[in-house]
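Journal club prep — side note

Before the paper discussion, L.F. wants everyone to see what a predicted structure for a comparable chain looks like in token form. Sequence:
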Amino acid sequence: MSFLGKLFGKKEIESLDQGLQKTKEGFLAKITKAIAGKTTIDESVLDDLEEALVGADVGIETTIQIIERIEKRAKADKYLNAAELSTILKEEIKAVLVDAPEQSYKSFTVPEGKKPYVILVVGVNGVGKTTTIGKLAHHYKAAGMSVVLGAADTFRAAAVDQLTIWSERVGVPIVKQAMGSDPSAVAYDTVASAVAREADVVLIDTAGRLHNKLYLMEELSKIKRVIQKIIPDAPHEVMLVLDGSTGQNAVEQAKQFTAATEVTALSITKLDGTAKGGVVLAIANQFKIPVKYIGVGEKIEDLILFDKDAFVDTLFQLSDLP
């Protein structure tokens, strides 16, 4: 059985493969062209590889790192066939990705002794933040855990309405207040409700505004302070949701949010509709924050656990490489 088969079931493998199809089409075509028939890594090969990586939105900084690592290895063994070069490329792409530190990154579970496990979800409007929360709630519930949602994005009625729809769809309770209410008050009530219910997981939606970074920082800091009155070590996770289809704009958003608050995990959405899937590599490498989930479709189950080996291996599947 392949590595992918050990980590995922058939449905997950198919979702990952189909979700990255647009990225793979361009990426693999360029990689194949770069190394087809080559028995040595010369300047033209490296130039073609660089073009392929940049074209997949891996980003200049990360691409340079990968190319430099390949160049260094090539000096030790200059004569390689295409299959060996493909293997080296995969290994070096994986090497720039951050390993997830917790077992919970391999399944929809939460660490022992953290009940309820509080996840603060941040990100700008339109990236799929609320949808990601809904899908996460579905997966946690399917894994046998009880979930409470908190609608702390009180500045947009649509955000509260959308999260309410997800709570009804998944069948989990939601805590919300009137439009314009203090977000920290909603967060406090959500955690208090979760404790009273003996819930396993709390997912709190927050406002996605970047026009005033100082205000964002103050708001998130206040939310943290009030929920720590109930659970001193909460939030246990601050997850930043980014839209993969925006490419380098997602990198810029990551810069803004990591400057405003401590981000501990990433969820990258909408990879099924873009050829820019390489941005996952750019973000994980540049910010040294583990990618926890990727969105690869519109179905409720199309938010899957990220594994760097599976992700990179999938990028190279169905190619013409030997």
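L.F.'s comment for the group: The domain at 104-309 is CATH 3.40.50.300 (Rossmann fold). Keep this in mind when we get to the figures.
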